[in-house]
Automatic annotation (TrEMBL), chain A:
Pfam families, sorted: Complex1_LYR
Protein name per the record: LYR motif-containing protein 4
BP GO terms, sorted: iron-sulfur cluster assembly
Species of the source: Hypsibius exemplaris
The organism's taxonomic lineage, starting at the top: Eukaryota, Metazoa, Ecdysozoa, Tardigrada, Eutardigrada
InterPro entries named among the record's database cross-references: Complex1_LYR_dom, Complex1_LYR_LYRM4, ISC_assembly_LYR
Similarity comment: Belongs to the complex I LYR family.
Annotated Complex 1 LYR protein domain residues: 8-63
Gene Ontology cellular component annotations, sorted alphabetically: L-cysteine desulfurase complex; mitochondrion
Automatic annotation (TrEMBL), chain B:
Pfam entry (one): PP-binding
Record's function text: Carrier of the growing fatty acid chain in fatty acid biosynthesis.
Gene3D superfamilies: ACP-like (1.10.1200.10)
Segments of skewed composition (Basic and acidic residues): 237-262
Annotated signal peptide: none
Disordered as annotated region, ranges: 237-273
Protein name as annotated: Acyl carrier protein
Keywords: Electron transport, Fatty acid biosynthesis, Fatty acid metabolism, Lipid biosynthesis, Lipid metabolism, Mitochondrion, Phosphopantetheine, Phosphoprotein, Transit peptide, Transport
Domain Carrier: 156-233
Coiled-coil residue windows: none
Lineage: Eukaryota, Metazoa, Ecdysozoa, Tardigrada, Eutardigrada
Length: 101, 273
């Protein structure tokens, strides 16, 4: 039982680590959110058959994440505006000049 | 053959023997004297390239190192989310520039490619005064500037504790007011093992080293985490012993105590007459 618990926790950690490697913002956020929700949803599952199935599903997902993250690294696109570092535009309230047309 | 005077320029009206020093090849040409086939354009090109190389000698700008606290830095300033390089916050010498070479004043050397002078390519070049048509860069002296790659804050136990506490306070599921050094994750803060995994991951990101699962399951309070990090980073503090209790300072025994009691080490009595 303890071994199963350890295995699950390591699986969780691995999945989160691999999900962080996505270069696309959307995929990355989705993968992290989905793993967290997926593990939390079936936290109190007691049926051993269901548990086995869920673990197998998780392992398959881990493989998918690894593959897709690697592919994403090969073909990168531009970063989204929210990911880039920049100066926030001044709102008209802050700047004491009349707003430009 | 006797040198014939040049009809086009006035140079040859003087004696050619006095004009040119001995090292000059003794070829006196029959026409206006020019230095023997120098590709001035090529030399200019070479010096420009050399200047470029020297200007870029210092290498690239300070490397984008993961400083010790990238995750913390990115969390502290939410507008800078995604900032992986926190060395901006810690490096005072952010604009520490590339080293620029110091120049030696250029004497009358004819060979530009052996000279040690380096100048900015925007500096004008001037003709030398002796009329030979040599291109010599203007002299400029600059100084070396120290290049600082990274200056991280000093790692002490106190600092590590502060980092750990700050990281945990930024966690969504933890109430920052309830958090103390000794608050247990499972018992006091009501977190489960999945949250614990996330906490350990945050600590790993913070201090840039991996924590194996066997060790991770033992770390259940912030104090234990800080202690573990100190052990792994080999940071020792004299004021605290291994378990975090203030250290006892033992009185150091004076090895010469007995002799001092006996009255040794007294200056010799002044000689009586």
């Amino acid at each position: 039982m303890a071994a199963l618990r350890l295995h699950l926790l390591s699986l969780y950690k691995q999945m989160l680590r691999e999900s962080e490697k996505f270069s696309t913002y959307n995929f990355r956020m989705y993968a992290i959110r989905r793993t967290k929700d997926g593990f939390r949803e079936h936290r109190l599952e007691n049926d051993p058959k269901m548990q086995g199935e869920l673990i197998r599903k998780a392992e398959k997902s881990l493989e998918i994440i690894k593959r897709q993250a690697a592919i994403g690294q090969l073909f990168t696109t531009n970063k989204l505006i929210i990911e880039t570092l920049g100066v926030l535009p001044q709102s008209p309230q802050n700047s004491h000049s009349p707003p430009t047309a | 053959m006797r040198a014939q005077p040049c009809t086009q320029c006035s140079l040859h009206k003087q004696s050619p023997y006095k004009k040119f020093p001995r090292r000059q090849p003794k070829q006196f040409l029959f026409f206006h004297f020019t230095p023997p086939s120098r590709n001035v354009a090529l030399e200019f090109e070479l010096t420009t390239r050399k200047r470029e190389r020297l200007r870029n000698w210092g290498g690239t700008s300070p490397p984008q190192l993961e400083s010790h606290f990238p995750a913390m830095a990115s969390r502290i300033l939410p507008s800078l989310r995604g900032l992986r390089n926190a060395s901006q916050f810690f490096t005072p010498g952010k604009n520490a520039t590339r080293p620029t070479a110091s120049l030696y004043p250029m004497q009358n050397s004819r060979k530009l490619h052996t000279s040690q002078s380096v100048s900015n390519s925007t500096l004008p070049l001037c003709l030398n005064g002796n009329g030979r048509g040599l291109l010599m860069p203007l002299q400029k002296s600059v100084t070396w500037q120290a290049k600082r790659w990274m200056s991280a804050p000093a790692m002490t136990k106190k600092f590590i504790r502060q980092c750990v506490i700050l990281n945990l306070q930024l966690f969504d599921k933890i109430d920052p007011e309830k958090l103390t050094l000794d608050s247990h994750f499972h018992n006091d803060l009501g977190l489960d093992s999945l949250d614990h995994v996330e906490i350990i991951m945050a600590i790993e990101d913070e201090f840039c080293f991996e924590i194996p699962d066997m060790d991770a399951q033992r770390l259940l309070t912030p104090r234990q985490i800080a202690q573990y990090v100190c052990d792994k980073q080999e940071i020792y503090d004299e004021d605290e012993d291994h378990h975090g209790h203030p250290a006892e300072h033992h009185e150091v025994e004076d090895p010469w105590q007995k002799e001092k009691q006996r009255g040794a080490f007294q200056p010799p009595a002044p000689a009586h007459h």
